[in-house]
Amino acid sequence: xxxxxxxxPFDDKVIRGVAEANRVDEEQLRSALADHQRTxxxxxxxxxxxxxxxxxxxxxxxxxxxxxxxxxxxxSVWEEYxxxxxxxxxxxxxxxxxxxxxxxxxxxxxxxxxxDNAVALVVxxxxxx
Length: 129
Description:
Residues 8-111 form the DUF8048 domain. It comes from Haloarcula rubripromontorii. This is DUF8048 domain-containing protein. Pfam families: DUF8048. By secondary structure, the chain is α+β, with helices and mostly antiparallel strands. The protein has one domain (4-124). 52% of the residues lie in helices and 12% in strands. It has 5 helices and 3 strands; from the N terminus they run H-H-H-E-E-H-H-E. It has helices at 12-22, 26-42, 46-56, 75-85, 89-105, and strands at 61-64, 68-73, 119-124. It has a 3-stranded antiparallel β-sheet with strand order 1-2-3. A hairpin with a 3-residue loop joins strand 1 (61-64) and strand 2 (68-73).
């Protein structure tokens, strides 16, 4: 079962819509999204990743809240995650589409803020316990 906290930054309608539009099993997509969030938290950690991406990419942080970073990264970041998580190209494309759509729905982010050579990425921050 997928930890609901890992999927907290994603609207259920976005996940369902992307799964349907891409003909991907919704539970498989949810699992891949959760695995990706878990991986970012565990290796090397959300704050370290965001710091690294801010150093590597111009305007990487599009918006942040106490719970979530909305990022713009290069496609190579997604390719690395796809390989690491063992996602086929089709499932990886659906995962990326969920992130892209979620960022575009974030009212605090202008769609033009995502540069031509960038892809959206949503990073859930673990809650302090």
